[in-house]
Every structure is written in structure tokens, then in C-alpha cells.
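Per reviewer request, we include the raw input and output of the structure prediction for the construct analysed in the revised manuscript.
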Amino acid sequence: MKLGCVDPQNCLVIPLRIGPSLLLVTTLVGCTTVSTPQIVQRGTEHRGEASVAVFVGQSTLQSDEPFPVEDENVMGICLRAIDPESYSIGAEMGYNYRKGSNNDESIPGQGTFDFRSRTDEVYFGLWAPLSGGGFCHPYVGAGIACYSIRAHQEGTSSSSTEEDLGCGAYAHVGVLFDVIDHLQWGIDLRGVLGNELNLFGIHTFGDYTQAALTVVYGF
């Protein structure tokens, strides 16, 4: 019986003889072994150095003071980076675009108005994947958010637009599920504690909660 080699041209094959009570050990001389690099499925295992996430969902203003537009549709994008071999915590930065409307809002003594709002938010923070099993990958993140809120009101005889800037702290949790190589989808829940805003004479805090579906591509 002969032992084979991956590359027969660079390998010296020595026969193996088996006797009744003696096993001759054969030595392969001159056979060059080339190690195969390990391929890490960075997207599905969420162990890659970078990923981009897209969000689609809805945010709700959480305030004790009434505000004409409480619910906004949100679309966002987020870039994440982490060195899984050296650190368990990475960084993230992103942008959220939110837009909402409230028609036929009656204000006592002033009339009926249509309100539209737009919020542009940028944020930067820390992000950490948690231990998960199989195709499930939970994560957490927190950081600082800065946003601009623009509100427009239009009545039967007048219209006006006001804008205010805010900043605050955010935190979010989520879970991702493997789809195919490098691609995941999941659910992201987010909350922001913001500073006081003043729009149309209404003082409210920019606190809101957000629920969104997300798709992540890992590099």
C-alpha cells in the first residue's frame, strides 16, 4: 500500500509494509505543504471588520407636553467597525431621516392646521455584538446624537415654519439573523433622551423611541 501526497511531483512516496507483528513507519520527504487560508464568513457570523446597516421603521415622540406631530417614519444608514481579534467593542456612526405629518389639527382659539415635520439626525457611539448561537446575533450600542427638527404649520389664512436644534444620548438593542453569506436582517429598538425644544411656542423634550427593521451587509 502507498501513501498519497497532495502534489505527487514534489513528494517522495515510500511504501508501507505491514508484517504480522511489525509496522514500518514511513516518512514523506520533500513534500511541500501549502496551508489554506481560513475563510471567515464575516457577514453571516458578524465578525468582520466593517458593516453597513439600513433601517426602516417608525419613531414616536415621548413627551408630557402635546406636540402636533408625534409619530414619524424613519429611514437610516449606519456604518460600523470592529476588530474582533483585539476588541469586543467597536464604533458606529450613522444618519437618520424622519418625516411625519398631522392634518386637521384643531388648536383652540387659533383654528385648524396641517402640520408637517422633518428630523435630520447624526450620531456617533460604541457598538458591541453579544454572544449568540447559530444564526442569531444580538447586539447593543450607545452614544451621542445631534438632530435638527423642522416643523411647518399651514392654516386657512397663514403658514409658518420653525426649526430647532437638539442633542442627547441614545441607546439601542437589536438582534440579527443570517440570510446568506455576508447578509443579515433583524430588528432594532432605539431610545433617545434629548434636550428641550421650542417649536410654535410649545416646549417639549426631544425624547423618542424607535422601532425599525434593519438589513446589514458585512465586509
